[in-house]
Amino acid sequence: MLTTRRHLWRQLGLSLALAACCTLPAQPALAAEKSLRIGTLVPKNSLYHRQLMEVGEAWRASQGGSGKFLVYPDGSQGGEAEMARRMRIGQLQGALLSVVGLQEIEPSIAALQSLPLAFRSWEEIDHVREKMRPAMEKRFLDKGFVVLAWGDAGWVRFFSKEPAFRPDDYKKMKFFAWGGETAQQEIMKSLGYTPVPLETTDILPSIQTGMINVVPATPYFALASQVYNAAPNMLDINWAPIVGALVLTRKAWDELTPEAQAQVRTASEKAGTQMRAKARQEVDEAVEAMKKRGLVVNRPNAAQMREWQDLAERLYPRIRGTMVPAETFDEVFAHLKAYRAANPGGGR
């Protein structure tokens, strides 16, 4: 259940396009000032892809119009961990990643996505992200990456074959689990849930054949991938946000002139703002679109919501110091406490 919070911005919309994987031939990076390659899981021609292309136009303009900017969408360069590896060896110069890929670079980023039911609103997410942003970006820079833009892709909901309202209802079901997230899988098993480790491309056929019964996903991903057709019940809780960022290798960044850096950063900040705004709008739009096609929205009552909150509270001690560094975990909740004290009534 925890699993997908972290894997699911591989949507950044999250449409996690279920595309076959093609590979970029191993070769040394071409002159970074003339060629920039960006990898992502987002679908071709989606809002997120279009925003990346606008960043590319700013980069090309900074090169006098002669630069070659290439975006590889649909996961064509592999999963997010693979894209992080490709950036390190120079096959890619940048990537639009969710926390799943970003934590391959800097583990503390997991604090923005791996805390179930911690955030009550987008305003809380924005507040915590901005408070943590300078230090977080410094950590990425120290590891050789520049964060150009921050985005998000909606709230994770649970899409299942059968109706479910309570945490215990899901114990008889089999969850999609991202293959590399072994720590989350162990936590799930210890709580009585059944994770089934799979790759992204296996989600749709697995839910269709019954290999899995539940897919934690954003509504946009469920709509775009058609997962909701095989799992037509959605639990209406905001389990966790999908958070991500556009990163560039420091090598590629340092090869830009100061003027070019300013142009690219301005375009990237604009793209991040557009991505966040559209993703939040798409949550409700996607749900309405799926309801017209047969989606059933299951809303927990007050007692059932307390059970979900109790589950989250039991998870926090397991997450702190393992999935999320203890210091960062504590910082998130300190910022939330301060925000709620200053904004009473601004919760759910």
What is the structure about, briefly put?
The chain contains 13 helices and eleven strands. With 348 residues, the protein is of the alpha/beta class.
Polypeptide structure, described:
The protein has 348 residues and is α/β, with parallel strands linked by helices. The chain folds into two domains: 3-153 and 243-285, Bacterial extracellular solute-binding protein, family 7 (D-Maltodextrin-Binding Protein, domain 2, 3-Layer(aba) Sandwich), CATH 3.40.190.170; 157-239 and 292-342, Bacterial extracellular solute-binding protein, family 7 (D-Maltodextrin-Binding Protein, domain 2). It has 13 helices and eleven strands. It has helices at 3-7, 47-62, 80-88, 99-102, 122-142, 182-190, 203-209, 219-225, 227-230, 250-254, 258-291, 302-319, 326-342, and strands at residues 35-40, 68-72, 94-98, 145-155, 157-160, 174-178, 194-198, 214-217, 233-235, 241-249, 296-298. The protein has a five-stranded mixed sheet, sandwiched between helices. A four-stranded mixed sheet has the order 8-5-9-11. Helix 6 links the parallel strand 6 and strand 7 (194-198). Helix 5 packs antiparallel against helix 13 and helix 8 crosses helix 11 (258-291). The longest helix has 34 residues, at 258-291.
